[in-house]
Each structure stands twice: as C-alpha cells, then as structure tokens.
Amino acid sequence: MSQKLISRSPDLKKLRDDGYEIEIRHGHLLIHSIPYVNAERKVQRGTLVSDLSLAGDRTVTPHTHVIFFQGEYPCSNEGVPLEQIRHASEKKNIAGDIAIDHSFSNKPSGGYANYYEKMTQYIKIISHPAKALDDNVDPRTFKPIETTSEESVFRYVDTASSRAGIQVVSDKVASQRIAIVGLGGTGSYVLDFVAKTPVREIHLFDGDDFQSHNAFRAPGAASLEDLCQRKMKVAYLADKYSRMHTRITAHPQMITKETVNDLQGFDYVFLCVDKGSCKKAVIDALATSDTVVIDAGMDVQLVDETLLGTCRVTTCTKTKNDHATSRISMSDNMEDAEYSSNIQIVELNALNACHAVIKWKQLSGFYQDLEHEHHLIYSTNCALLDASECDHVNKQI
User: Taking a C-beta distance cutoff of 8 angstroms, is the pair 214, 190 a contact?
Assistant: First the structure.
C-alpha cells in the first residue's frame, strides 16, 4: 500500500524522487534525516511527521497546516529556538509506534496545496540554520527506500483515525478476534461498525439467506440483483464489507448447542439472535472463559396502532454473568412477535447495535466507562435509558 500510494500521488512521488527519506506508516507521512540545530548549536537530524488526507489511494489537499517533529526543538544557528513556528511541545504517541516531541505551525495565506509544498516549507525553515553552520548538510539523502512489511486489515489507509489524532486509541482493539452471531438487522449494523475498526479478525455466523425483508433492516442499499442471487446473509455481507476490511470470514451456519464450541477463542462475541436456545448455548459455553458475550435483544409491541420499542444490551463476562438468566430470555416461544414481521424498525436495529458496540469499546478501553453497567435498556415511548447490573469490582468510585 505504501509504495502504491507514493507512486499514485504526484506530491509524494516528487518528495521521493527529490531524494527525501519518506515513509508511510499508520496513516502518516514521515520524512527522516532532516538536519536542524539544537540549543547547543550542534547539527542534529530529526523526523517530520504529518497526517495524511487521502481519497482512496491518492493524496488530496492537506486538511491542516500543523506538522509534528521527532527530535530536540530546532534552533537558529545561534542556538535560539525557532519560536515563530512553535505550536506545542509534548512528547506523546500519536499512532502505533510513532512518537513525537513537538508540533509546528506555519500557515501560508492560501494554505498548502499538496504535501510537497507543506513538507518542503517546514524542511527549509528547520534546515536553513543547519546549512549555515555546515554547508555539506542536506535533507535529501537519496537513501534507498525499503519496502515495509507493515500489514493492515484495511484495503486503504485509515485516515479517519489519524486525522482525528485517535490512532493510538483505535489500536486498542487491533489484536482482537470478533464473532457476530446472527446477521439480521442488529447484527448487520454491528458488522458495519466493527468493520471500520482495525480488529484482527471478524467472523460471521448465520444460516439464513439474505432476503428482501433483510434489505430493509440492514445498512446500505441492496440492489434487486443482489436479492435475486439469493446469497446467504454471511456471504452477502462478507462480500460487501471485505471491500474495506480484509479479515472477514463467513460461516454459513447458525450456532447451536452442537456447534457452540466454534466460538471458543474469540475475544468478543456479539449475540444478535432471537432464538433463546442459541443464546443459552452460547452463554453457558462461554461463561467461564475469557470471551465476553454482548447480547443485543429487542422487543416491539403494537399499542393503539403505534409501536412501543425496547432495545436491550446485556453483557456477560467471566467476572459478571450471574444476571444473564434473569435479564435474557432463553425461551424459543415467539408469541405476538411483531418484531419478526415489521420491517419498519431499522433505526432500532442501528441503535441497538450502537449500544452493543459502545459497550465493547468501553470494555476495550476505547471509551471511558464510569458505570461498568452490564445491562442497558432504552425505551422509545419515554426516551428512557436505564443502566443496571454494574460490576462493582471494576466500577470507579
């Protein structure tokens, strides 16, 4: 991806062809071996780091003029700090293994048209004092560029995280293996959200076909041709989302008591099914394991020709699962199941999936969690969000 991005982006290609040591890593552009003067009037070399704005496999106009720097604070040839570009000085990790010491701000009236303009402008400012002390120093080293073995689960660079400066937070889920059981309305939205994170693997379990009623409950817009192909849900959705995330595996089967061991070894299991016996099999099998089960359920009732909807997310961990039997219906009895026939509740599917995914991200350290609730209910008729079953062992007082 890195070399492809460079070759298809004229500004990056010009930087490389001019002899700069450029590298693409974790959604950022790095230029190494930039000469500068430190406070002791010694010539050192540092690295400039910029986030990347991309359209697919090509760069677009940089969204910010701010840039990062690895090294001591650059000074004039007299050892005086270059205060005119100072933005902030704080050592921090911004993405993966990329740590920076400072950030600079030098904004031209019209901004920077491309990354060649942006990077070379900062290089001139920083390197000019070094050149005054040693005429032989040059930021253009013409060092051969090695191909990197950095692998990404995405087919294109995640610039959303790097642009927002939350790459380090996003990486907290990168090692996880995720299973989604049930790819109906809620499960398909869970996939939509999870597929936009760098999790190591996503496994889909469902034994049904993708039909017309599913299209009205799932994210995106299925075409008539899609429906006529009569693909299974897991195959249809894996095909759609593999265009973005490369580690999605489809399992054309529903989890039963006989196949529940297929879920062993996952970090998180999203349980998005109506069938109580499936829920019971999964929760019983994983209760003592390190796998966290997040069950998303829904109840919709017809009252005076309006719908009353309740969305529920119940979380079961090794240390907190004693509430499962009282909070989750383990029955297969589906009396008066308006939810099974009503196709106009896609927003509840999406909302339920949101709550489930937020809970997962809280447990993963992505979001702050002060309540540590393991049972969350939202009711449409009174806009009530009720949290209970808190894990008092982990709750912050």
Answer: no
For residue 25, the one-letter residue type is: R
Burial class (CB in 10 A: 0-12, 13-18, 19+), 180: buried
Asked if residue 156 belongs to a domain, the reply is no
Q: Has residue 397 got a pLDDT over 60?
A: no
Residue range 363-387: average pLDDT? 93
Gyration radius from the chain CA atoms: 26
Alpha helices for 90-149 (secondary structure H): 115-133
In which element (H, E) is residue 13 found?
Answer: helix 10-17
DSSP state of 145: P
Residue 231 carries which side chain, given as an amino acid letter?
A: K
Estimate the crossing angle of helix 233-241 against helix 185-194, to 10 degrees.
20
**Taken in order 351, 357, 361, 366, is the CA torsion positive or negative?**
negative
Which CATH number is 249's domain given?
Answer: 3.40.50.720
- Write down the pLDDT at residue 336: 43
Angle at Cα 64 formed by Cα 62 and Cα 68, nearest 5°?
Answer: 105
Residue ranges making up the domain that contains 99: 2-151
pTM, two decimals, is: 0.76
195 and 300 assigned to the same domain: yes
